[in-house]
Amino acid sequence: MDMEKRDFNKAAATWDENPGRLKMANNIANMILDAVKLSSDMKVLDFGCGTGTLALRLQPYVSSIMAVDSSAGMLEVLDQKIESQNITNVATQHLDIEQGDVLEGCYDLIVSSMTLHHVREPRLLIEQFSKIAAPHGYLCIADLDPDNGLFHGKHNEGVFHFGFDREAMRRILKDAGFDNIEYLTAAEIVRSIPGGVRPFTIFLVTGQKKI
After folding, report:
1. Nearest partner of 133 among 116, 110, 103, 112, judged by Cα
2. Are the C-beta atoms of residues 186 and 27 closer than 8 Å to each other?
3. Distance between CA atoms of residues 126 and 131, nearest Å
4. Distance CA 61, CA 121 (A)
5. Angle between helix 166-175 and 122-132 (nearest 10)
6. Paired residues of 188 in beta bridges
7. Residue 141 scores a pLDDT above 80
8. CA within 13 Å, CB half, 101
9. How many CA atoms, within 13 angstroms, populate the side-chain half-sphere of residue 128?
């Protein structure tokens, strides 16, 4: 694992040019829409929003989305989308929990896609999610099943976890105060690895905050 943080600011300008990345975000959005009954009064937090591919898919169905990321470059791309598409219910916030920033507010739905493996202490982050989740609020996390460090290949900068065991993640959510925890396979990505190709699966875990 590479403890150096990846330069997402540099990657932001061309981030959306990867069709596989956009397809994955779309698949995850569809799974969330199937798993959680969204409504026009819901307030949503998208943690690790990147260029907003997930947030912008969900925004027509909810009241508001706070899109949070540690990369100013990613947020700049999302801000340009918000302005050009005249979107009024998505706001952005630069926040870096690795630098001690803390999540605030109260949300009916918290989503995070392909971000958790870049977080040093996922348990502490999920505890923060629990603190800002409304009673009976939902948490939806999409990330990699165990990948033996092969998913990112040579680009493991800032990758602190080579995927997550589903049962271990279930225990973390339960300990943080989430119930009704369910798992789905949200996407499968086939990538070249040394010696051939391999499919990698992305899970979606959903949970609901206890009162």
Report:
1. 110
2. yes
3. 9
4. 31
5. 40
6. 201
7. yes
8. 13
9. 19
Run of H or E residues at 128: helix 122-132
pLDDT of residue 2: 46
Query: Given pLDDT bands bounded at 50, 70 and 90, which one contains residue 5?
Result: low
| pLDDT given for residue 149 in this prediction | 87
Band of residue 22 on the pLDDT scale cut at 50, 70, 90: confident
- Dig out the tokens for 14 from the structure: 């061309």
Using DSSP, state whether 118 is helix, strand or coil: helix
Q: How far apart are the first and last CA of the chain?
A: 38
Amino acid at 50: G
Which run of H or E residues covers position 91?
Answer: strand 90-94
CATH no. of 8-194+204-209? 3.40.50.150
Distance from C-alpha of 74 to C-alpha of 13, rounded to nearest angstrom: 8
What number is the average pLDDT over the span 156-184?
95
List, edge to edge, every strand of the sheet that includes 178-193: 90-94, 64-69, 43-47, 107-113, 133-144, 196-209, 178-193
| Residue 164 reports pLDDT greater than 60 | yes
DSSP state, 2? Answer: B
Q: Who wins on pLDDT, 66 or 12?
A: 66
Contact 139, 169 (CB under 8 A): no
